[in-house]
């Protein structure tokens, strides 16, 4: 099959986990004998409307687009609204020469539905939506968008277009599937599609101590958070953990990424004198993997107000590197059972600060415990979250 994969960010410049996930999915399809083109936003000032490039034998079509992150909510909303329009202008003649047999698109963003509909109409093919972000619902839950407002109606329109463009929808967990089907009944063809990773992608451990030498972390147990630093993650939750661990002299917290709460993290580190916490800006995927290979514990956090059941993609990178997982979730999130049933980490409900701190102290104190739990996390990856499994599910649906 000749497949299109559409996402709102891409390698080599992206630091987002889903950009890596889509690249690994494309690589798996190619291994199976298919051809793949990844369609994604390029840069605002690129000379041509469409730039073509190759990474690891995967073809990328990058269309001219405004920036989507780090430039304010209003500007981002405008640029995301224009995604389908800008992409269609760039690719419409190309897909006449290279018609697709299937379209796979990833949400977020919520704004690719119009593009997918146009490609389907032009190529008479099926589409598969990888639904990871039930926007705008989470933003309403967080109080960022007022329920019933014109802004909600605006985003709800594009959400409905996004869903209606799909022939099949893969949701990231059983409870997310239940939430979605309860709301939409049998309107869409849905099933569970877990996040995935290349289980053979572990970064070679060279034995050097670059990270520890650079930041003076020799002898420290490094608690690492990498990825989006935003409202949905409730970074204040992780900062409270770091504060409660100030007296644990061998523990250090390393946060890396970009997002709406970077300023909050910076100001909290300064105002509370969190000398056990370091904030780093986003890095390339290669550098990110190198850092992952040198840290000890993988952190994540989800806002307590979430109603959906998110499975952060960053967990897969932690599992690849056999890191024990320490996380905080919204009440009832089925991620807890997935991790704790196989002893791959400690998962607490956001707000259980004392229990969260005790779990962190246990991991900081016991190297053998970290190894045992980390090995369990790696085995969990291989059994349930492999890229081979995801590719099989998607292709079976597109061929049905």
Describe the overall structure.
With 400 residues, the protein is α/β, with parallel strands linked by helices. It contains 17 helices and 14 strands. It has an 8-stranded mixed beta sheet with strand order 3-4-2-1-5-6-7-8, sandwiched between helices. α1 links the parallel β1 and β2. The chain is globular and about 65 Å long.
Tell me, rounded to a whole number, the average pLDDT. 92
**How many helices?**
17
Strand-residue fraction? Answer: 15-25%
Contiguous uncertain segments of 5+ residues: none
What is the third-level CATH name, the topology of the largest domain?
Rossmann fold
How many structural units, i.e. domains? 2
The CATH homologous superfamily of the largest domain: Glycogen Phosphorylase B
Order of the strands making up the biggest sheet: 3-4-2-1-5-6-7-8
> Structural class of the helices, strands and pairings?
alpha/beta
**CA gyration radius, whole angstroms:** 21 Å
Question: Would you identify the CATH architecture of the largest domain?
Answer: 3-Layer(aba) Sandwich
Strand tally is: 14
The biggest sheet, with number of strands, parallel, antiparallel or mixed sense and barrel status, is: 8 strands, mixed
What's the helical proportion of residues? 40-55%
- What is the terminal-to-terminal distance? 13 Å
Which CATH class of the largest domain?
A: Alpha Beta
Shape: globular
């Amino acid at each position: 099959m000749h497949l299109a994969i559409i996402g709102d960010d891409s390698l080599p410049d992206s630091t987002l986990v889903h950009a890596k996930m889509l690249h690994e999915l494309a690589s798996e399809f190619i291994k199976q004998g298919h051809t793949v083109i990844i369609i994604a936003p390029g840069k605002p000032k690129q000379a041509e409307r469409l730039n073509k490039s190759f990474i690891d034998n995967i073809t990328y079509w990058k269309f001219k687009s405004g920036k989507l992150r780090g430039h304010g909510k209003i500007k981002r909303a405008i640029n995301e609204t224009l995604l389908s329009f800008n992409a269609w202008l760039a690719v419409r003649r190309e897909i006449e020469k290279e018609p697709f047999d299937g379209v796979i698109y990833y949400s977020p963003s919520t704004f690719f539905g119009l593009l997918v509909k146009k490609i389907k109409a032009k190529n008479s093919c099926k589409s598969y939506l990888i639904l990871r972000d039930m926007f705008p619902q989470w933003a309403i839950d967080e109080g960022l968008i007022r329920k019933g407002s014109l802004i909600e109606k605006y985003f709800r329109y594009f959400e409905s277009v996004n869903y209606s463009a799909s022939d099949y929808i893969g949701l990231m967990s059983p409870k997310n599937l239940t939430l979605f089907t309860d709301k939409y009944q049998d309107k869409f063809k849905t099933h569970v599609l877990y996040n995935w990773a290349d289980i053979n992608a572990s970064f070679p451990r060279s034995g050097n101590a670059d990270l520890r030498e650079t930041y003076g972390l020799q002898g420290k147990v490094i608690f690492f958070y990498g990825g989006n630093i935003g409202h949905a993650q409730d970074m204040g939750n992780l900062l409270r953990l770091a504060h409660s661990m100030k007296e644990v002299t061998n523990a250090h917290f390393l946060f890396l990424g970009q997002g709406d709460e970077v300023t909050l993290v910076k100001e909290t580190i300064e105002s509370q004198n969190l000398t056990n916490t370091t904030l780093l800006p986003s890095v390339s995927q290669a550098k990110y993997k190198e850092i992952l290979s040198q840290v000890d514990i993988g952190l994540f956090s989800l806002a307590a107000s979430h109603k959906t059941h998110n499975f952060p993609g960053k967990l897969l990178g932690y599992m690849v590197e056999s890191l024990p997982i320490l996380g905080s979730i919204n009440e009832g999130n089925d991620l807890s059972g997935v991790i704790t049933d196989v002893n791959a980490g400690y998962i607490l409900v956001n707000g259980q600060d004392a229990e969260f701190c005790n779990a962190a102290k246990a991991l900081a104190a016991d190297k053998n415990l970290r190894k045992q739990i980390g090995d369990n996390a790696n085995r969990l990856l291989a059994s349930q979250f492999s890229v081979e499994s995801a590719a099989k599910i998607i292709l079976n649906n597109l061929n049905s």
